[in-house]
Amino acid sequence: MLLVERAKDTKQKQLRAVQHALEREPVDIAALKKIAASHGFMTSALRVKAWCSLLGLDIDHLPQYKEFCGPHHDYDIVDKDVDRALWHFMRHEKKRNQLERLQELRDITHALMHRHAFLHYYQGLHDVCSVFLLLAGPSLAFALSERICLGHLREALLPDFQTIEEHLSLIMPLLLRCDAEVWGVINAAEVPPFYALSGVITWMSHDINNIESISRLFDVFISSHPSMPLYVWVAMMMLQRDTILSCSNGMDHLHHTLQHLPRKADIDATIQLAVQLFRAHPIQSIIKSSNLSSVFGKHHSFSRYPFPWCDELMSATEFYQLNIFCEYPNTKKLIQRGKRSIQQSPNRWRWHFISLIVLIVSIVSF
């Protein structure tokens, strides 16, 4: 009984800490970031409020997302992805509710792609949007998804996955600093880091079917540097090192094991270790030691963070006028290419072949 009472007291203190940070004027962003790293935002209601504050959302002036629904160059792909979405989160819901949520998810994703013609949809983005939809409802889900797409996940929405592949290439240098033995096994097997692709670009929302666990990860991803998913992945590798070290059936077996690490992860322990790794091994030091400074330049999200909307409340209109994505080199060409492709090639697939194969395998095994 004493342990139960202590657990209740601890939970109450954690709830009050979140409420206190949100009730301050202005909202105590620094406190929210600390809370996200330690125990998270506790309830769905507090979580949504915290996410909005961390992303500078003015909830009284949300964009009317249905106004932005329209054609875009990935329209058919989005429809096909959404058709098989949400089932693992809503398996106990009535069919009518499932269909309503699916239509909302479809509208949100189409609106994102139509409003920002330079964005290029990737398989799994709908998983990220679905988490926001289930916790926050459609209007807030659109606004939250929009800021994540133009901030933390901006490189995943470029025309190809070259930059994301460069993100993944930082996993092994980071792992070498943290666990040389695990690094040695993976390096000897010559396993490329595509095992982490789905987890990194969907914030684990495609790989974990527990909404509470995913939401807890979203707490730390939204409140942290865009490189945090890489640290979370390395933390999972370290915490599940025995499983990795026991792999003896070659590259395929090891790749499969690494790809499914999120499903067996202790989320709280993983987050705590990831935060420690981030502090001990800053991402810029990993980039520099990997001779990739020219790749992660001033326009990259790693360099641009914290984003302008992280420092102050920003209305949807102000956010749209800022349009931080247009600071990318050659973005005007990307916009024109996107507009042309609406008529010319709605089904054009842009991914590198190996990235596509990895994701297909991930979906089939899920």
In short:
61% of the residues lie in helices and 0% in strands. With 366 residues, it is mainly α.
Keywords:
single chain; 366 residues; mainly alpha; 21 helices
| Helix fraction by DSSP (H/I, runs of at least 4) | 55-70%
Sequence stretches where pLDDT stays below 50 over 5 or more residues: 337-354
Rg measurement, Å: 20 Å
State the end-to-end CA separation. Answer: 40 Å
Count of helix runs: 21
Shape annotation? globular
Average pLDDT value? 87
The total of beta strands comes to 0
Oligomeric state: single chain
Largest sheet: none
Instruction: Sketch the topology as an H/E string, one letter per element.
Output: HHHHHHHHHHHHHHHHHHHHH
Beta-strand percent range: under 5%
The computed structural class is mainly alpha
